[in-house]
Every structure is written in structure tokens, then in C-alpha cells.
Amino acid sequence: MLDVAMVKFIGDNPPGNGRVFLYLLCGYLTDIFRLPKKPIFAKILFALLDKLFNIFGKQGDGASGKITDFSLMTVDIHSHLIPGIDDGAKTMDDSIFLISRLYDLGFKKIITSPHVMADGYTNSSETILKGRDDVRAAIKANAIDIQFDAAAEYNIDDSLYEKIEKKDLLPIAKNYVLVEMPFMAKPPIMGDITYKLQIAGYNVILAHPERYGYFYEKTFESYYSLKDKNIFFQINIAALAGTYGKDAKYTAERMIDENMVDFLGTDLHGMRHLDFLNDSLRSKHLEKILNYDKLLNKTLL
Ligand SMILES: [Fe+2]
């Protein structure tokens, strides 16, 4: 029933959140209707089926069901969609597929944010901007009506000092710089780096604060001390679907309830993350934050 192309596609995109049956259904329908046996068609068919099942799915934890996409968010500021330069999209086909799904989900603009870190993804501004231009050309060739730009997700490590000094940073629009930290331990230089960024004229956005155990395990008040230092918070949408565990979900929901969230982000890396985005549409907290008038995503269009 499953041909080689389909098996390769499944191997590259392992199923998440109980969607194995959708993959099997894809293979079955491909055979029955004699559809082209290419990974790109498998991906499109999978996405269509996934959307269909979500429309008829239950509404989860109390969401009204009025939110069916992310058009209220408008702009995504966190994703990994330049192929081959970090742990996100591997090929341009992957990038185009993911971007077209974001378009289907209501986004009008993507500001993608490849990892930049001293140990691992040592991307420069040049490699990121070259990748951005390549993806833009592919978006145009595929006639997808979406704006595409690139910034970066900077890991807080020693290499940032030189970048700040040289002003060699790719901000999200309006001088917002997106930073992340290791999940295991808070870097001692965090306060110093964020201060230096602010002195240099940048607004600091902390990516997925709900995922740092050393904050939420200590006390939720740690987050207020970051807000006191004018750090902007961007939570990951998938946290609301429980993708990163119950502690991250609780923390993200509490941040929404206490009006601490400035930005949302997809942090989209691959196919599995699309499942998580779809799952989050059933969250009443997603509905709440998308209707929050101080959510800043849409101001960056
Ligand atoms: Fe990320």
C-alpha cells in the first residue's frame, strides 16, 4: 500500500500526537485514486486530511471554536524555515511546504529566525540573508502570497558580545532582537547581555520563556523580575497544546492570564510542529491571547 516515496516522507517526518492513521490513509488514498507518488503530493494530501480532521475534531479545553486559524496573529516572528542552516527545514521543498501551510493557517508575514550560537549553528548575517533571498525566490516561483523576511534566534553565549559591539545583529522589525538560552542552566551572562543589548538600542525578546525549568521550578516571580528589566516575552503556540510538557503549558497559560505575553511564535521546525499548531487551536488560552489587544505580532506587518 505505501510506496517508496511515501515511506521516505514518513521517515523524514515521523508522526506525532496520534496521527499515524493519517499517514496510512494518505497511502491508501494515493493508491485508490492513483495520485502521483511523490513526497510533495504526499505532504499536500496529508495537510488537507489533517485540516479536515481538525475541522470536525472536538474543541478541547473550553475554546469556543471560533478560532480556526492564526489570522488574528498575522505575523509569525519565530521559525526555522531557511533550508539546511539549522535544525529546521532540510530542503527548499520542505521550506515551501511549511510556508504554504502557514499561509493556509492565516499568516500574512513570516519573519524566520535561524539559530545563531557559538557551539553549533554558527550562522552569520550573510548566510541568513542569502538564505532568505533564496526562499523569497522560491516563494515567488510557487506563487504563495506571503511576505517573508529573516532575523535570527541568538543564543545567549559569549559570541554575542562581539556581535553587539559591531552591531552585527539581524533584528526582528523595529529593533527587536530575539534571544534564547540553554534549557539546562541559566547562563550567568544573561543579565549582562540583555543589558548591553538594551544599551545598544535593542528591545530584547526572550524566546519561549515557558520552557526554561530553572525559572518556573524556582518561582513564577522570576518572570516578573525579567519583565521589570523590560524583557519582552514570546511564548510558543505549541506550549498551549502541551507539546513541551505540563509545566511549560501551565506556565504559558499563567503568563497569558497575567497579561505577560508580548508575542506569540510558531517556532516551526518541521511537519510535526504543524500538528502541534493545529492541536493548539483547541486551546481556550490561545483564543484569549489572539484576542488580547496588546499582542504585538500584528504591529510588525
Ligand atoms: Fe526556535
Description:
This protein is α/β, with parallel strands linked by helices and 301 residues long. The chain folds into 2 domains: 4-55, no CATH class; 75-300, Alpha-Beta Barrel (TIM Barrel). The protein is 43% helix and 11% strand. It contains 12 helices and 9 strands. The protein has helices at residues 4-12, 20-32, 39-55, 92-104, 125-141, 159-166, 190-199, 213-216, 221-228, 246-257, 271-280, 284-290, and strands spanning 75-76, 109-112, 115-116, 147-150, 153-155, 176-180, 203-207, 232-236, 263-265. Strand 6, helix 7 (190-199) and strand 7 form a beta-alpha-beta unit. Helix 2 packs across helix 3. The chain is globular. The model is unreliable at 1-18 and 55-59 (pLDDT under 50). The site of fe (ii) ion (FE2) has 5 residues, from loops.
Instruction: Return the average pLDDT rounded to an integer.
Output: 88
| Spatial order of the strands forming the largest sheet | 3-5-6-7-8-9
Helix content: 40-55%
Report the bound ligands by name, code or SMILES.
fe (ii) ion
**For the record, what is the CATH homologous superfamily label of the largest domain?**
Metal-dependent hydrolases
Largest sheet: 6 strands, parallel
How many domains comprise the coordinates? 2
CATH architecture of the largest domain: Alpha-Beta Barrel
Q: How many DSSP E strands?
A: 9
